[in-house]
Specification:
The structure is a homodimer. By secondary structure, chain A is α/β, with parallel strands linked by helices. Chain A contains ten helices and twelve strands.
């Protein structure tokens, strides 16, 4: 015993937890509502309760938490978290330890960084020493592994691949900049492109497919339409692929990594954007490094972050 | 004795060497023509002769060589070198050792990577643990130091910052891509902008300042004209600054480094582009990491690469 970690994934809607063995096997899963819209205190309360229930049996090496936002992981501080109310330099680790009321090691890291670690540990990148992950979801997250170690920056803020500029005069991003990767290769970006297309009365079957209830499912709807041959929908995925390809060439020219992994919900539409992404990356990347870099789909799906969070515990405690 | 390294900088015109002490003091300098236009064999011959002359007295810990091109430093192979004739996977280290005919350790690294090491060791970045250097010369080179270690990639090809895409539909770069940083913030880029301006008959005093003999000095001429208030010349430096600022924001969002150092010949025109570069970087960078990153001018000038090459010897031999 003692070689089990709890890995957490903090979503805007749910807190997902898993009991993970040191070789990466998931023993058990739990999930509760996160109540992120009510503020960070609610998230911490729900998180603490779930941890208490889980560690009751004893033998837990520690808790690893992946959370969307900017983290100072050495201090356990949540600097910024766009999807949780009222977060500004919140001392998450200390507050959580206080709430749990028991001595249990807690490690906090950005969720995309956790996904990078997970895929590197036992996923698509398990044979690579250096890789970059791009998680295409509501936004675009990123994580960088160099020589088998997460590079999370001077202050734990590295890997914000979603905010590299692709088109200097492009669409406005939530971060304030214009033309970020996130403005072209995320669910938010797809919604923007669809809204814009519908306003301009483009011919597309997407119009009939969208109901008020399905607004959240727009990327899936655009994927369905593209598979049915809808030209506008196919164009949207080409735009996603093109932006992604430009970003991949930048990353590979800059970091000469062995592998670029694409994960997140949008990766389900893989066939609709990957050819364009690879073509664009090859066109723009320097010959030798772009030829060398494998561009692959993540294999751990939603579990990448949870598993990476678990790995952090094993690593920090010297277990693996 | 024995704690002296020879650092080399291989230029298109000259081979420059320095005897360097372990604390970074330069004892002596030498220089010969490189004859790079005649091919790599001539460069190696000249390099070997200079090394033989220098090591005659004995007590040399090793030779470090900074060279513009793509290097596989672990194997000592020069993969590509745009400024030297006939280079294609040339086994530089082995050929050199054969030519020298004596047992002396030889280490080879990309010149901008050497400059990054030099500035980090005893230059502008000596108090930083993570930094990026951009060397603005004929082209744009780059080097990345993370946690006190050069990140030169899975195959020694990392740091090609000059070839990240700034404007996807921008000017064609020598690498084949369009809109690379190098196409907007190098001597080649400035020449292109000036040629284009003169063809379009813009009003500028640059026209009178250029003679056939001064073609190579165009960046200096454009700097002089800008200082004299020439509007076109000022615009050229604004373009340099803007492209640089976009690149700096990308780098800082991605790697969250403590410092970005700008070196190379164009850094002499610092006052003409840096305000625009910083403004653009601040506009596009994520709040916390861009506020944190210091943007500074290199302090070692042309010696950064030579000193970095020397450091490699001390480091690899376990002397420092």
């Amino acid at each position: 015993m003692g070689k089990i970690a709890i890995g957490f994934d903090i979503g805007g809607t749910n807190l997902r937890a898993a009991l993970i063995r040191e070789e990466g096997h998931i023993l058990e899963r739990r999930s509760v509502l996160s109540e992120a819209d009510k503020g960070i205190e609610f998230v911490v309360k729900n998180l603490a309760r779930l941890i208490q229930q889980t560690i009751k049996g004893g033998g837990i090496a520690g808790v690893g938490i992946g959370i969307p936002g900017i983290i100072d992981s050495s201090k356990g501080i949540l600097t910024q978290a766009p999807n949780i109310c009222n977060v500004n330099n919140y001392p998450l680790r200390d507050m959580l330890i206080e709430k749990i009321g028991q001595s249990v090691p807690v490690f906090i890291e950005n969720d995309a960084n956790c996904a990078a670690i997970g895929e590197w540990w036992i996923g698509a990148g398990k044979d690579a020493k250096s890789l970059i992950i791009l998680t295409l979801g509501t936004g675009v997250g990123g994580g960088i592994i160099l020589d088998g170690v997460l590079w999370n920056g001077a202050d734990g803020m590295a890997g914000e691949i979603g905010h590299i500029t692709i088109y200097p005069d492009g669409a406005k991003c939530n971060c304030g900049n214009f033309g970020c990767l996130e403005s072209y290769a995320s669910a938010v970006a797809i919604r923007r492109m669809v809204d814009h297309g519908l306003e301009r009365n483009v011919e597309t079957i997407i119009r009939e497919k969208i109901t008020n209830r399905s607004k959240e499912r727009i990327p899936e709807i655009v994927a369905e339409a593209a598979i049915e041959g809808d030209k506008f929908a196919l164009w949207v995925w080409e735009e996603v692929g093109k932006a992604l390809g430009i970003a991949i060439a930048d990353l590979v020219n800059l970091l000469n990594v062995e592998m670029v992994i694409i994960g997140g919900g949008l990766a389900n539409a893989w066939e609709l954007f990957i050819d364009r992404a690879k073509k664009e990356a090859k066109k723009r990347g320097l010959r030798a490094p772009i030829k060398r870099a494998k561009i692959v789909k993540g294999v751990l799906g939603d579990d990448a972050g949870i598993l990476g969070a678990g790995y952090l515990v094993f690593k920090e405690k010297g277990i693996i």
